[in-house]
């Protein structure tokens, strides 16, 4: 039935009637049978978890560990859908999780998430904090603690006006990135910057630090400070170890201590790094106050430290914000340039859009990028194809919930298969192709929950506006200065899961000075 829907949709779209009422009527009729699992609750008895299909514990463990499944977790979503339909259960080590791979069902879950949504247990992250006596940051806090930090931070990160104020700060970081790209291309006989993601990790860290501390770390200087490299390396290793430590029952940590020990060492360094920068920044402020100077901070750490939040929470929040701002930006910027280099026509149209808005100016501001619809469409399309968080999650504590005709007991971990939905031909024709134009028409024809790279609702990404601004400013300026081409000797780069979705191999790009 699902394929009938896809064929009907595509046939109508090919005939140029994508926005027609006919398509909507067909979709409604077909969804009444294929996507209507939810509606079964009205007429049928709810099914239990025992009746849900899914691989046996052994076969899933074999998929994960025997067939490199940990790095292919995003592909296992597509395979799971093919084998079991839109909902299936699987045991990820000691954790039983229900996979949900249709936007209608994801919407049902998110509409029942309650006042204080819980993403997932993130057991190993929380275990580490308990072990060391650290506080929780926004990523790991729950309940009232989460709510109060969210309200505080949201004032400075979610309001458009507050975020626009960061455009000068971020543009200064983009200026350094351009200089670094120029140096790197000059060092290569064919103007190629190898492994662009490494440079973009540094850009991500420099960007989020400038927003958090209003001071620079020097990540884009010719000689990168050792501690920032070590911080980035700690994030990478910690993400690899997250999946491993969560897939292993706790008693195994003693039998095979390396993953857990490495995981803790990475976090130790990240907390230490963040604390060092916060203490340094606050000391400078205190000295200014002592000299009777006015302090006028516009950076997040300053806002946090002026609240009644205990310092322990300031440290953990800043650590988690630093962490959240690195891989997310690096991955999305790498894939954006990778796809633009392979689609020179789209790159040219985007450059024309930037020029039309900027005129003679070279540096856009927040108000300028807001007038660049193709730029926004490119980032949306990149995040559809390569959602940084390929599988989001929710746990609903306290009560059972109904999803797709099943009754899910309270505390069930529900995996929201965003990678599968955003590559679903029922919602995105030609789903594996880079087609930013699909976001430019008013009636985009897909379910609103089909591509949710930043999540949705109360627990959605708090850094979304900052991330988008940073990406828009960087892409617009890179294209103003360079033609970006693929490395003629490079091949196709595929994504892989490392908790987050990252490029599986190096992305090498040719930067031609304009
Ligand atoms: C392309 C860039 C980014 C993407 C795709 C992204 C995506 C996400 C997603 C999917 C979530 C989970 C939402 C949910 O559970 O519904 C999330 C949460 C979060 N993100 Fe981002 N993110 C990005 C950049 C950033 C940046 C730059 C920051 C820091 C300024 C950040 C900070 C956070 C935090 C703190 C949370 C937890 C929010 C909460 O639990 O209340 N993110 N992000």
Automatic annotation (TrEMBL):
Binding site for heme: 461
One of the GO biological process terms: vitamin D metabolic process
Cofactor(s) needed by this chain: heme
Pfam families in alphabetical order: p450
Keywords: Heme, Iron, Metal-binding, Monooxygenase, Oxidoreductase
GO molecular function terms noted in the UniProt entry: metal ion binding; monooxygenase activity; oxidoreductase activity, acting on paired donors, with incorporation or reduction of molecular oxygen
Keyword Heme belongs to the record: yes
CDD domains registered for this protein in UniProt: CYP27B1 (cd20648)
Family: Belongs to the cytochrome P450 family.
Protein name per the record: 25-hydroxyvitamin D-1 alpha hydroxylase, mitochondrial
Source organism (scientific name): Coilia grayii
């Amino acid at each position: 039935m699902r394929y009938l829907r896809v064929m009907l949709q595509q046939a109508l779209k090919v005939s140029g009637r994508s926005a027609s009422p006919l398509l909507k009527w067909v979709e409604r009729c077909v969804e009444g049978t294929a996507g209507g699992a939810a509606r079964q609750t009205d007429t049928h008895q709810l099914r239990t978890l025992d009746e849900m299909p899914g691989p046996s514990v052994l076969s899933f463990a074999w998929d994960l560990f025997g067939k490199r499944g940990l790095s292919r977790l995003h592909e296992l979503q597509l395979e799971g859908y093919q084998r079991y339909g839109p909902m299936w259960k699987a045991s990820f080590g000691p954790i039983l999780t229900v996979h949900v791979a249709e936007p209608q069902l994801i919407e049902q879950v998110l509409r029942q998430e309650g006042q204080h949504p819980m993403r997932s247990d993130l057991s190993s992250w929380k275990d580490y904090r308990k072990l060391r006596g650290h506080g929780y940051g926004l990523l790991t806090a729950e309940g009232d603690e989460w709510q109060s930090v969210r309200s505080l931070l949201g004032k400075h990160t979610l309001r458009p006006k507050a975020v626009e104020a960061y455009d000068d700060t971020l543009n200064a970081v983009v200026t350094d990135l351009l200089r670094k790209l120029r140096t790197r291309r000059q060092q290569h006989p064919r103007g190629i910057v190898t492994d662009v993601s490494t440079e973009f990790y540094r850009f991500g860290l420099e960007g989020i630090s400038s927003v958090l501390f209003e001071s620079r770390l020097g990540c884009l200087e010719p000689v990168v400070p050792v501690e920032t490299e070590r911080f980035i390396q700690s994030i990478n290793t910690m993400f690899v170890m997250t999946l491993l430590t969560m897939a292993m029952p706790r008693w195994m940590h003693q039998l095979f201590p390396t993953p857990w020990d490495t995981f803790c060492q990475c976090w130790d360094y990240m907390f230490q790094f963040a604390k060092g920068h916060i203490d340094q920044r606050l000391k400078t402020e205190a000295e200014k106050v002592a000299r009777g100077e006015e302090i006028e901070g516009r950076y997040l750490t300053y806002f946090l430290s002026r609240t009644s939040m205990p310092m322990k929470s300031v440290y953990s929040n800043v650590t988690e914000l630093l962490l959240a701002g690195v891989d997310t930006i690096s991955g999305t910027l790498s894939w954006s340039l990778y796809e633009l280099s392979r689609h020179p026509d789209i790159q040219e149209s985007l450059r024309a859009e930037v020029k039309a808005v900027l005129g003679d100016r070279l540096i856009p501001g927040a108000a300028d990028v807001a007038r660049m619809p193709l730029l926004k469409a490119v980032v949306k399309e990149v995040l559809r194809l390569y959602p940084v968080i390929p599988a989001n999650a929710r746990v609903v504590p306290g009560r059972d919930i109904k999803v797709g005709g099943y009754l899910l007991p309270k505390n069930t971990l529900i995996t929201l298969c965003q990678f599968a939905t955003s590559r679903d031909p029922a919602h995105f024709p030609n789903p594996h192709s880079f087609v930013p134009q699909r976001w430019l028409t008013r009636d985009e024809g897909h379910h609103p929950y089909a591509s949710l790279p930043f999540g949705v609702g109360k627990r959605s990404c708090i850094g979304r506006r900052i991330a988008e601004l940073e990406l828009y400013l960087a892409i617009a300026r890179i294209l103003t200065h360079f033609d970006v081409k693929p490395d003629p000797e490079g091949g196709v780069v595929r994504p892989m899961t490392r908790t987050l979705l990252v490029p599986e191999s190096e992305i090498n790009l040719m930067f031609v000075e304009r």
